[in-house]
Write a structure and sequence with these properties.
Elements lengths: L6 H4 L7 E3 L6 E3 L3 E2 L5 H14 L3 E3 L7 H11 L7 E6 L14 H15 L9 E4 L5 H18 L5 E4 L3 H6 L11 E5 L7 H9 L3 E5 L11 H10 L3 H12 L2 E2 L6 H7 L9 H8 L16
Parallel strand pairs: 3-4, 4-5, 5-6, 6-7, 7-8, 8-9, 9-10
Antiparallel strand pairs: 1-2
Helix pairs in contact: 2-3, 3-4, 4-5, 8-9
Length: 299
C-alpha cells in the first residue's frame, strides 16, 4: 500500500495516475469525482464537466439516488466505458421474502443488479468497484451484502469489491465467512483533521487501498489559518492544497462539487508539490475522531 511520498516521487503524479488494485487486474485512478447530494440533470451535467476536465473515476451509491444520472453522463460523454472507473455502494441488505426481517443473500444480490442496470442504462453492465457503504446493518446484514458482492465479483459484474466506513474489527469480521479477503478498498473520511491513523495503518499492512471522502472537509476549513498560509505559499486554493495532501499521503481523494470551475480546479493539482515540512504541519492538525464531520470508523 502506498504511503506519503518524498518530493521526487510525488511530483510524478498526474491526472492519469492509477493504483493497481491488489489481487485483481484492475487499475483505479488516484483521483475520483464524488456525486453525493448531486441529483437529476445537475448530476449528469457535473459528471460530464468532470469527464471533460480529465477525471476518469466517478463515485456513486444507491443511497445517493443518482446512479442512472451517472450512467447517462457516461453514455453522453462518448468516452469508452472501459476508460471510466465507476464505483457504487449498497447501504443495507434486502430481506428475505418469506422472512421479512432476515437479510437474504440472493435478494441482496438482485438489489445490487439494479444498480448495474441503472449505471449501464438498462444493459447488464458492470461496475469497477462495488462497496458496502456502511457496517451498521449488523453481522448478518454485512454477511449478506459481502456474499452478494463476492458473487458479482466472481461473475465479473463487479471488477473489484470493498467496504466503506469499516474499522479494523469490521474488516476482520469479514474473514469469518468471506471467500474474498481482504476487501480491495476501504473508503473512509480522511483529511488533516481526521486521519484515522490506526485504520489507515491496518489497511496499509493488509494491502487494502484507501479512498478518502470529504477530502476538502466540505469547505468547512477554508478559513483555517494554517491552511490559508499554505494556500498563499503555494498559490493554490485551500481545496487544492487538501486534495494534493491526500494524493501525497497515498490516499484516493474523492472531491465533490457541482460548480464547473471548482470541478476543474480540483483536478488542477499536479503542477506543485507540498514539501515534507508542510506535510508534517498538515499531519499535525489531526483531531482524531473529534475531527470527523461525517463519521469516524469504529476500531
Amino acid at each position: 500500500m502506498p504511503h506519503a511520498r518524498g518530493a521526487s516521487e510525488s511530483t510524478k503524479l498526474s491526472l492519469g495516475s492509477t493504483f493497481e488494485i491488489p489481487n485483481t487486474k484492475v487499475a483505479i485512478p488516484k483521483l475520483g469525482f464524488g456525486v453525493y447530494l448531486s441529483n437529476g440533470p445537475t448530476c449528469t451535467s457535473s459528471c460530464l464537466t468532470a469527464l471533460q476536465a480529465g477525471y476518469r473515476h466517478i463515485d456513486s451509491a444507491q443511497y445517493y439516488d443518482n446512479e442512472a444520472e451517472v450512467g447517462r453522463a457516461i453514455l453522453e460523454s462518448g468516452i469508452p466505458r472501459s476508460e471510466i472507473f465507476v464505483t457504487t455502494k449498497i447501504l443495507s441488505p434486502a430481506n428475505s421474502k418469506t422472512e421479512p426481517h432476515t437479510p437474504d443473500e440472493h435478494e441482496t444480490y438482485l438489489k445490487c443488479i439494479e444498480s448495474l442496470k441503472k449505471i449501464a442504462i438498462g444493459e447488464k453492465g458492470y461496475v469497477d468497484l462495488f462497496l458496502i457503504h456502511s457496517p451498521h446493518s449488523g453481522p448478518e446484514g454485512r454477511k449478506a451484502m459481502w456474499k452478494a458482492l463476492e458473487r458479482l465479483f466472481r461473475e465479473g459484474r463487479a471488477r473489484s469489491i470493498g467496504v466503506s466506513n469499516f474499522g479494523v474489527s469490521h474488516i476482520e469480521g469479514l474473514k469469518v465467512f468471506g471467500e474474498v479477503w481482504p476487501p480491495h478498498v476501504n473508503q473512509i473520511e480522511l483529511h488533516p483533521w481526521c486521519q484515522q491513523r490506526s485504520t489507515v495503518e491496518y489497511c496499509q499492512r493488509n494491502k487494502i487501498l484507501i479512498e478518502a471522502y470529504c477530502p476538502i472537509v466540505r469547505n468547512e476549513k477554508a478559513d483555517d489559518k494554517t491552511l490559508l498560509s499554505l494556500s498563499k505559499k503555494y498559490n493554490k486554493s485551500t481545496g487544492q492544497i487538501l486534495i494534493r495532501y491526500s494524493l501525497q499521503k497515498g490516499w484516493i481523494p474523492l472531491p465533490k462539487s457541482d460548480t464547473p470551475s471548482r470541478i476543474e480546479a480540483n483536478a488542477d493539482v499536479y503542477d506543485f508539490n507540498i514539501d515534507k515540512g508542510d506535510m508534517q504541519i498538515l499531519d499535525g492538525l489531526d483531531r482524531g475522531k473529534n475531527g470527523a464531520i461525517v463519521e469516524a470508523v469504529l476500531d
